[in-house]
Amino acid sequence: MTTWDHVIIGGGIMGASLAYQLTRHGNDKVLLIEKSFPGAGSTGKSGAILRQHYSHEITVAMAREGLDWYSRFEEEHGRSISFNRPGMAFICTDDNRPNLERNVELQKQLGVQTEIIDSSDLRELEPGGTFRDDECAAWESEAGNVQPVQAVNEILTVAREQGTEVLFGRRVVSLIENNSTITGVTLDDQQQISAGNVVICAGPWSGQMLKEAGVSLPLTAVRPEQAFFEPPPGAHERRLIYGDLTNGLYWKPELAGWTRVGLLDMDEDAVVSDPDHYDEGVSHQFIQGCRQKLSRRLPHYAHSPSWGGVGALYTVTPDSHPVIGPVPGREGAWIVSGFSGHGFKMAPAVSRGVASILGSAPAGSFDPDFFCPLRFDKGSPIEVTYGYGILG
Ligand SMILES: Cc1cc2nc3c(=O)[nH]c(=O)nc-3n(C[C@H](O)[C@H](O)[C@H](O)COP(=O)(O)OP(=O)(O)OC[C@H]3O[C@@H](n4cnc5c(N)ncnc54)[C@H](O)[C@@H]3O)c2cc1C
Q: What is the pTM of this model?
């Protein structure tokens, strides 16, 4: 039986990036197992916004590392992930201004190109937009996005060129345990695979997988909804990315020319008990609500065609930050999950950090203590600055 140095469960952006980092730096034998296809979980439906507006030194630095890495991917590997850089504005009213100012100051110190702009600057930035006099924004000109399905596939392609082996369409049904040490995994055809490290990058499926191994971590799968609209021909719009704290909304241009709209509040998202069977549709009510809120900002969306929407999956934790580290009480296993709707941009820094601990990658901005899976038991969750945990 082949023994792998690392078995990665899940071919989303985390699993693919980790396979890339482990095989980029060193000769470890890496096997990635994906039950469906790359991007089948949260990754494939991601907005893949790459912003650096975060509230903690570590998360700003990680988002910065991620943005830089994605921006260089095509040049380095000759493969397009459709990286582009429209810039992003975080709009809020005076009540959130102190938070915004504090965060912008922190980000500037860490090298982010960002500034506070007032309502007249906002009107100049988006001449067709409606902004209140008491609103301001953090403008981040470097913010960008990628096409998530392209990105996960291309990263995995490079990982395979570097030596990663993959099994697609095969499901891990259990972790093999020997005296509280995980020594491998069992697949759906009962094949057993032996591994030095098993890394669970199973997104919304992670909580259940751990539970079946007798480990309880606060990971919950929820169902956010997204709506898509087509701007009417001739509409005056800059096609920027927005986080609108006043209306609890974000929107961004999609490659197809549509505009994606989602809500910042995750508290109302339905809990999903079986991520293999969940409602991928959205209600008329949700689409109308998004249209109404968006057209408060950009009036032309009141008369724009709707392209429906999609129900997706987030894996959330109580403090809206991931759990990354050794699985408590199970040697030989790591958990990398719980990204609470904002993990895409973090994948390069997370994967490099994990690969520096489990393999030979050089250390980066990742700090394992910050994301310790036991922080909730220790009563030290990560502090969340804004009312919306998804902002981090
Ligand atoms: C609608 C939406 C919008 C988002 N927008 C943004 C954004 O703008 N910016 C940002 O930074 N982040 C965003 N995110 C969050 C980001 O996309 C996720 O944090 C990230 O994709 C999580 O990746 P993952 O690899 O951890 O999980 P997933 O992508 O869910 O991957 C897990 C994989 O594991 C596989 N798997 C599960 N169980 C098994 C098993 N037993 N055996 C084998 N394989 C298994 C699944 O099939 C799946 O492919 C968004 C997410 C969503 C849903």
A: 0.97
